[in-house]
Amino acid sequence: MSIGFRVLAQQRKVDAEWVERYRAVPVANISDSMNRMTAGGAQLRAMHRFGVLVGPAITVKARPGDNLMLHYALDIAQPGDVIVVDAGGDLSNALIGEMMVAYAIKKGVAGIVINGAIRDAASIGAGDFPLFATGVTHRGPYKDGPGEINVPIAIGGMVIEPGDLVIGDDDGLLSVPFDQVAEVYDRAYAKHAAEQKQLEQIAEGENDRTWVLKSLTQKGCEFPS
User: Is the pTM of the predicted complex or chain greater than 0.85?
Assistant: First the structure.
């Protein structure tokens, strides 16, 4: 076994039914339903113009500044997959640009996450292909390796295993473990529905705010006499 320079088979991944269900649920609601304990870090931002990223993860562990394994991940990706690259958050060299994005679109990849930098930011930013990254630089990548594909990775303390659900919107990126997809969805959907009801109540002037004073009182807040 060549630890640090290998490609493993993907053993499992969330199916298309869950992908479509999650597409309509905001990341913030999913995060709340996971007790706000999971996040890829505020530095991961959407580099594209518009669009939700959602799909099962192909994970890539790359040497900072090197995109050889990312290229191979693109070659083996199936339509609907999300390629998630942990490149250590290094911003010295871009790992992807407009040509690789064009190839990803042609292959039907659902999106790409780079814990590192991109380039051709104007072209990518004008498009709707979901791409999250931590920065931008004009300096291109090396293609020497090593690296690993379909191994557990971590971004900002968030562990992502091959086949886990990855979802991102304007608020950031989140991973839902394969075994928790159904439970998290039920909680997130209920949270989203409750918030939509509350927005309706606000619009109608019927939003109950008594909880604020009650909470302050219970916590011993002092008020003017």
Answer: yes
